[in-house]
Amino acid sequence: MNIKEITVNLSAVIPTGSYQNYKPMYELKAELTEADDAQLCLEQLRETIRKLFTQDWTRLRDKDKSNFLANVRWYEKDGKKLPSVTSVLGWAELNYKLRNPEKYQFGGVSEDDLQEYGARGTVVHRQAQDWFESGMKADHVMKEEFPELVVERQLLKESNLKVEDCSFLGFIEKHGKDFTFQSCEQQVIGEGYAGRLDFVGTYKGRLAIIDIKTTSTYTPRGELQYFKQLAAYAKATELDIKDLVIIPLNPSNKCGYGAPKVVEMSDGLFNSFNDDLKAFERDFKELI
To answer: For residue 19, what pLDDT band results from cuts at 50, 70 and 90?
Structure first.
């Protein structure tokens, strides 16, 4: 068989950030002479096309890094900038998606949707804070308006999302007997990071970090990230925290909440977060 021409093509999906639907395609052709080794030529074309894809991916990753950086939340202590726990975990998640495109190539959540979901979460957290500051009364009436949340309210007004679908008071009525709440919206400073936790309290008599989540689905990886977040808060409090507890205000449930999700505080969870922190510090060392 006399091969005169070889064509190599590669199509792929960039699965994350603003590029979740970007599908680059590359094609290279080579004309052969009788003296050429067809197999060697094929391998050279494949290597070249893989390099093109890697260059494209790297360029978009750098763009994602710039976009991500614009939204990083910083704290400051003794003149040093400290990234928030959620920013550290957000960067880890972005990199995980870049490393595992096959798991994320079929769509995702748009930037506009993320902002709307975030707005609902912010309002729900503010309502819970108001409940706490008002004495945690059983007959508390949830406020609908908070002057400082103008942007969030506007985003929700333009969306189909409803704050009422996340029922914090319904959760408290069902599960409140298992909880005490001792502090709310407490800022904590850890070694190289900072954050603001929802509640310190107890769950079934054990000292706990308690966090509200307003997501509709909980994947194993998603739950792991949430509990790493709480472990980082727990370590920063320097209290003898026993449990990490999620209050799942689940909009997909008709009642607007689910049962508490609980894991025991562990060094393993914190060490996993600390690995993410080191990666963040390495990637953004010029800013810290």
So the answer is: very low
